[in-house]
Design brief:
By secondary structure, the protein is α+β, with helices and mostly antiparallel strands. It has one helix and six strands; from the N terminus they run αββββββ. Strands 1-2-3-4-5-6 form a six-stranded antiparallel sheet, with no helix packed on it.
């Protein structure tokens, strides 16, 4: 036997739903805090082939805040490359990353030293060259 909903129960359900909607709508109208920051990021990424199968990899990165004014991040990575195929490079290496102080008056850089493994795959789609890297880093 099916139970029919009575009109008063439907109206009370709608009133409860409207009240809950109003509460959530009010809760979501807080002012949003917006932080504006301009950054510049420069990097040099090199793969140097020493023989048909072996080579070295060197990455240098510099990220600056407020255009070029304030330091943000420095990274250096070196690694040994092995060419699995002409378009696939396996790399094992070491990196050092330095993060600049984030608060005024702080002078200590956060430093991390990491070992990593990487696979780099170079492909072509028409005239466009694509380079994909998958890097696994251990802290």
């Amino acid at each position: 036997m099916k139970k029919k909903l009575k009109l008063p129960s439907i109206i009370s359900s709608l009133i409860i739903a409207l009240i809950l909607f109003q509460i959530t709508a009010v809760a979501q109208t807080n002012a949003k805090e917006i932080n504006e920051l301009s950054q510049s990021w420069f990097s040099i990424n090199s793969n140097i082939r020493l023989s048909k199968k072996f080579g070295v990899m060197v990455d240098l990165h510099e990220r600056r805040n407020n255009s070029l004014t304030d330091p943000s991040f420095h990274a250096t990575r070196v690694g040994a490359n092995y060419w699995l195929k002409d378009n696939i490079i396996l790399t094992a290496g070491y990196g050092q990353l330095c993060t600049a102080p984030s608060k005024a008056g702080w002078h200590h850089y956060g430093k991390e030293k990491r070992v990593y493994q990487q696979i780099q795959i170079n492909t072509k789609v028409g005239k466009t060259g694509l380079l994909n890297r998958l890097r696994n880093e251990q802290r």
